């Protein structure tokens, strides 16, 4: 990422990000004797980030990550009710644009910057889904750690200008959501009514 600027408040920047990944995944599934199935899996990721600023490696913003991401699911028919329960750990790694340290001029009021020290966000997801005749219901809980958020702060040496940047949210972000859908068939009419609610802490 090479950014050339003649403006004193936005310095020129030459940054390079190198990423090397090694991943492995294993999964086991079993069909239950009464119908339905269970499965469990595990993903391993070994990632090496090397960050260079003006052709010099920056140790503080270079890192190695070794992470395991498990998942499990259960699906069955309980009478006339279809049931699906699942759990998974997921990661959302920052994009290269979010990691870039270059200041980009947007307009005279705003400058955009990335953050090379951004950490990937990790989420633990638990979900339950059920179907009975024309009723569908789902409930999910998500717990996000190191959520990547977009913030703005004032520019020190310029009046009425702000810098937009990315950072990891300091607190965990739990979220609960529920969706109920009703889709009966009345003659030739197929109405669908959906209600949803979401709560974030």
Task: Describe what this molecule looks like in 3D.
The chain is mainly beta and 201 residues long. The protein contains one helix and 14 strands; from the N terminus they run E-E-E-E-E-E-H-E-E-E-E-E-E-E-E.
Q: Which tags fit this structure?
A:
201 residues, mainly beta, ten-stranded antiparallel beta sheet, four-stranded mixed beta sheet, elongated
Distance between the termini: 37 Å
Number of helices: 1
Order of helices and strands: EEEEEEHEEEEEEEE
Give the percentage of residues in beta strands.
Answer: over 45%
Radius of gyration: 24 Å
Taking pLDDT < 50 over at least 5 consecutive residues as the criterion, the unreliable ranges are none
Q: How many DSSP E strands?
A: 14
- Return the structural class: mainly beta
Average pLDDT for all residues:
90
Largest β sheet strand count, sense and barrel closure: 10 strands, antiparallel
Topology of this structure?
Blueprint (H helix, E strand, L loop, with lengths): L1 E2 L9 E19 L5 E17 L2 E2 L5 E16 L2 E12 L3 H4 L3 E5 L2 E4 L7 E12 L2 E11 L2 E7 L7 E7 L4 E10 L10 E8 L1
What's this model, at a glance?
This protein is mostly beta strands and 201 residues long. The chain has one helix and 14 strands, in the order E-E-E-E-E-E-H-E-E-E-E-E-E-E-E.
């Amino acid at each position: 990422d090479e950014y050339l600027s003649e403006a004193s408040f936005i310095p020129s920047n030459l940054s390079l990000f190198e990423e090397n990944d090694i991943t492995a995944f294993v999964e086991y599934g079993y069909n239950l004797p009464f119908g339905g199935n269970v499965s469990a899996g595990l993903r391993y990721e070994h990632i090496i980030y090397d960050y260079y600023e003006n052709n010099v490696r920056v140790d503080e913003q270079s890192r190695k990550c070794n992470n395991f991401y498990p998942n499990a699911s259960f699906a069955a028919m309980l009478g006339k009710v279809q049931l699906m329960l699942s759990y998974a750990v997921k990661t959302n790694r920052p994009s290269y644009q979010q990691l870039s340290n270059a200041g980009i001029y947007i307009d005279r009021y705003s400058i955009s910057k990335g953050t090379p020290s951004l950490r990937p966000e990790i989420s633990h997801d638990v979900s339950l889904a059920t179907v009975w005749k024309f009723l569908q219901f789902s409930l999910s809980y998500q717990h996000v750690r190191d959520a990547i958020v977009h913030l703005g702060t004032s520019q020190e040496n310029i009046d009425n200008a702000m810098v937009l940047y990315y950072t990891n949210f300091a607190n965990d972000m739990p979220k609960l959501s529920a969706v109920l859908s009703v889709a009966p068939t009345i003659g030739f009419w197929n109405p669908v009514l959906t209600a949803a609610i979401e709560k974030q802490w």
